[in-house]
């Protein structure tokens, strides 16, 4: 069942076409991630859906509700992670949550939220004394206060260290267990891959592709990257490269010093042929690896551009 559907969203700021044409639908209980480089239009898309920015064109439906007719009801249904600046720095997490709770008719108990965002031990510390990761967790808690069905998190892990990011991931996975729908934006491919049921890759205001992380990666796994590092140095790698270039299973080759990288649709066959060659020449291979494709590869394959964090 779709809880959100957007059709042909468009938004310009003066001459900048921030969102050119975005359409997608999100199912109940999904973690749906919008990923894209800086300026791709992620925040603008999210803010239109959240009712904070008016689209120039397009439709937004929450089931059979829309902003024009059912604004109040939609606000009860969604939770938006506030900007860090919206929190009260001199108050504690507990006081911030209690205060935000007064904005709503029904609220999830503060203790439950503190537990969920793992801030129970810090509930009496002033917000200004919290770390960046703790503040972000509180922001997610504030989005949860009205116990919404759909939660919007705009780059909740940007600027956090790996451990703090993982704490946020745990909360997102916990929200999923609670049956919530989460719509997330991120710069981090690894994050999108780990958390999402589906990923929507955007670039320059348009959707590049939408699918499950595994299906996106699967589309590319026809080709796998194989790496061989030669103990005998550059000359061995160069000869192996010339040999591999003649193999029909090999699509592309790169060489960096004594490391040969090649892309093949049949890694086993290619490696077998290469090992026959190295044995014949008496070259020693120090390391062999077959790399799994990542969402980053998907982005590069679809856009022809390098991924920039
Ligand atoms: P980031 O990852 O950097 O947050 P993003 O994918 O969220 O980027 P947006 O913030 O939606 O991208 O911005 C898309 C484009 O629209 C950018 O070129 C941005 O500079 C521009 N833009 C966004 N908001 C405004 C605004 N209020 N006024 C003018 N231009 C804007």
Keyphrases for this structure?
309 residues; alpha/beta; 37% helix; four-stranded antiparallel beta sheet; binds adenosine-5'-triphosphate
pLDDT below 50 for ≥5 consecutive residues: which ranges? Answer: none
Q: Structural class, please?
A: alpha/beta
Helical fraction: 25-40%
Bound molecules: adenosine-5'-triphosphate
- Major sheet: size, sense and barrel closure? 6 strands, mixed
Our estimate of the beta-strand percent is 25-35%
Distance between the termini: 33 Å
The overall pLDDT, averaged over residues, is 91
Q: What is the spatial order of strands in the main beta sheet?
A: 5-6-7-3-8-9
- SSE arrangement, N to C: EEEHEHEHHHEHEHEEHEHEEHEH
Q: Helix count? A: 11
Shape: elongated
Cα gyration radius (Å): 24 Å
Total beta strand runs: 13
Domain ABC transporter: 4-229
InterPro entries: AAA+_ATPase, ABC_transporter-like_ATP-bd, ABC_transporter-like_CS, ABC_transporter_ATP-binding, P-loop_NTPase
Pfam families: ABC_tran
Protein name: ABC transporter ATP-binding protein
